Amino acid sequence: MGDEVFVRGIVEFSNVCANDCFYCGIRRSNRKVKRYVISPDEVMSVARNMAGCSQTTIVLQSGEMPTPRADADLGNLIRRIKRETSLAVTVSVGNRPRDVYAYWQACGMDRYLLRFEASDPELFARLRADCTLEQRLQCLRDLKALGVQTGSGFMIGLPGETLEVLADNILLCRLLDLDMIGIGPFIPHPDTPLGTSQNAYVRDSEMFFTALAVLRLVNPDAHIPATTAFDAVFPKRGRELALQRGANIFMPNATPAAYRKEYLLYPNKPCIDEGSDQCSHCVVLQVRSIGRTIGRGPGDSIKKQSAML
Ligand code: 5AD
Ligand code: FES
Description:
By secondary structure, the chain is α/β, with parallel strands linked by helices. The protein has 12 helices and 9 strands.
């Protein structure tokens, strides 16, 4: 994928979630979380800012809100971003029916992120009760069939994850022929049912990077982000190491600072302090400091570009 690193700010626009995933800090049952929804105007001011900081894509992520109202609100927000900026729009809001994905695509959605989390159906069933692995994979097939650039991925080191499952996770990414692949270490969150379990590689954390490097070799033309969970395991340098070991995308936190501490999917997430709104600037410096350049242009999937030729 060359030396370019694409910078894509992520806005965690709501932490309201209907689901109760056993690993996730913003699960419905976690009463300690103060729930928020960021207004469209506030998201728009973040979006306008991004264009001025070498960013060509906005990533909109939230908990799952499976209601027609939430679907329409997001559709309107996507339309507004496309009308008022030149940003590509990536959405990451969970399982929805195919016609909802098609509606968002008609509103201008370019890409979608939906991790399958674990390729083993039994392990998956120990992670969440709202859906099966097969349903999750069907969402990915729907997105691909619509022609939305599709990203997926998994957590590394879930309790019960064997080396075979990890290898199968990587192979499933290949099989799905993904445009984007996000992976990162599983980090137990104390206020979740998996909070007392340990990462399978707690004593061998180089495995996180080994997995990433193998993922890159097996998926040479996919966009692979250096995810924040690497920084949670290797403070201040995990994402940088990830960029040097296979990743080519950096996703700075673009959520307005006041909300960040309420979007803790896992503990030790970087950049959650008040006043860390400047993330996109420090990212550009960090990327250059390791001899890489900032990606220009929309950074569409190479696969999509060749398919259009
Ligand atoms: N540790 C690591 N990653 C997590 N995610 C959610 N909870 C955790 C956790 N405890 C990841 C999931 C999800 C993505 C948005 O964040 O893979 O798909
Ligand atoms: Fe919200 Fe998993 S807890 S989707």
